[in-house]
Amino acid sequence: MKNIFLKSVLLILGLFFLTSFKNKEMLIPQPEELGTVSWLRDYDQAITTSKKTDKPILILFQEVPGCSTCRGYGNEVLSHPLIVEAIEENFVPLAIHNNKGGKDKEILKLFGEPAWNNPVVRIIDTDQNALTPRINGKYDRSSLVSGMVEALKKVDRSVPGYLQLLSEYLNAADNKTEKATFGMYCFWSGEAKLGSIPGVVSSEPGFMNGSEVVSVTYNPAITSYENLVTEANKKKAFEEVFIYSNDQRATAKTLVKPSNIKKAQNFRADGQPKYYLLHSPYRLIPMLPNQASRVNTAVGFGSDPNVFLSPLQLDMLNYIKTNPGKDWKNLYEKPFILGWNQLKTQF
C-alpha cells in the first residue's frame, strides 16, 4: 500500500508539473503574436482581477494576425520562459487586438492607440494610472523587462530575484560588457566569491600564465573596474590581477601592488566551472549565467540559492529530486533557452 501511495503522489506531481511546464501553445492554442503568456481578453475583467490581487495590469496592444515584427515579438519576447513567468506571476496580463472591432476597438480608443500597429505595452495600476512610459518602438526583451521592474518598484511590490537578474543580464547583453581576470590560490572558492559581486554577468575558472584564475564578464553600467577590484579585494578573492588594457593597468596600480599586476593572455578554461553548483542538484536546472554565478556562491557559502530562481525553476528542481532515477543532464552552463528546451524533452 505504501508503494502504491508513493507512486500515486509522484504521478500527481508529474501531471501537475507537466501542465505548468509544457509549452503553453501545446495546451491552449493561441496566435503566435501573443507568445505563450496566458492573457485575459476583457479589460473590465482585468481591472476586477487587478483590484482583487493588487497586481498591476500589463496590457499588450498587438496586431493579430500581424506582420513579421508582431510575430517576432510574440516568439522572441513573449515566449521567453522567465518573461512569461514574470508576467503571469506579478501582473494581470491583458491582450488587446489592435485590428479588431467590438471591445478591442473601444479599449484602443480609450488609450488613444492606433489600429493596425506594431506591438505596444502599457503597464497601469489598479486605478488605471500609467506606471511606466508607453513601451513602443523597441521590440526587445530588455525594454519590456526593464519596464516590468520599474512598474513593480513604482507600486512598492518586491522585484523577484530572478526578474532582477534577468533585467541585469539583458541590459548587459544590450551594452558593451568588459572582462576582468583575477589570480588566486583556488579558483573554485575565488569564483564563488567573485560571482556575488553586483554587475558580474558571468564567471569562468581557468589557468593563465601558470596561475589559477577566474575570468569574469561584468557590466560597466552597473560596476566600474575600480569598484570590481575593490569589492574583490574586500572578499580576499585574488592575489594577482591580469589586465586587458592600459586603462585597467592604470586603475589597478592605485589598488594593487605593481608586482601583482600582469598582462592577460592564454586563458585556458577549467573543466569544472561553478564547482559548488556542479556538485549539487542545481546543476540540472537551466539558468541565466548570472543566476548560475549567484547560485554557485550561495551553495558554496551556505546561503539560500533559491532566492535567485523563479518558482518554475524551483518546481523543476523539486520534480527532478523526486525522480532521481532518470538520466538528467547538467544544464546550468548551457545557453538558457537551449537548456530549457532540452529539459522539456525529458518530461
The H/E string reads: HHHEHHEHEEHHEHEEHEHEEHHHH
Q: Determine the mean pLDDT.
A: 91
Radius of gyration: 23 Å
Strand order of the largest sheet: 9-8-5-7-6-10
Class inferred from helices and paired strands: alpha+beta
* Count of individual helical segments: 15
Report on the biggest sheet.
Answer: 6 strands, mixed
Shape: elongated
Our estimate of the beta-strand percent is 5-15%
Kindly report how far apart the N and C termini lie. 26 Å
Explain what the structure shows.
This protein is an alpha+beta fold and 347 residues long. The protein has 15 helices and ten strands. Helices cover 45% and strands 15% of the residues. It has a six-stranded mixed β-sheet with strand order 9-8-5-7-6-10. Helix 1 packs antiparallel against helix 14, helix 7 crosses helix 8 (161-174) and helix 9 crosses helix 13 (289-301). The relative contact order is 0.10.
Feature tags:
four-stranded mixed β-sheet, disordered N terminus, 15% strand, 347 residues, alpha+beta, 15 helices
Concise description?
The protein has 347 residues and is of the alpha+beta class. The chain has helices at 2-21, 24-27, 43-53, 68-77, 81-90, 102-110, 141-154, 161-174, 187-194, 225-234, 246-253, 275-278, 289-301, 311-322, 336-344, and strands at residues 57-62, 92-97, 120-124, 135-136, 178-183, 200-208, 211-218, 240-243, 261-263, 268-269.
Question: What are the SSEs and their pairings?
Answer:
Layout: H1 2-21, H2 24-27, H3 43-53, E1 57-62, H4 68-77, H5 81-90, E2 92-97, H6 102-110, E3 120-124, E4 135-136, H7 141-154, H8 161-174, E5 178-183, H9 187-194, E6 200-208, E7 211-218, H10 225-234, E8 240-243, H11 246-253, E9 261-263, E10 268-269, H12 275-278, H13 289-301, H14 311-322, H15 336-344
Parallel strand pairs: 1-2, 8-9
Antiparallel strand pairs: 1-3, 3-4, 5-7, 5-8, 6-7, 6-10
Helix pairs in contact: 1-14, 7-8, 9-13
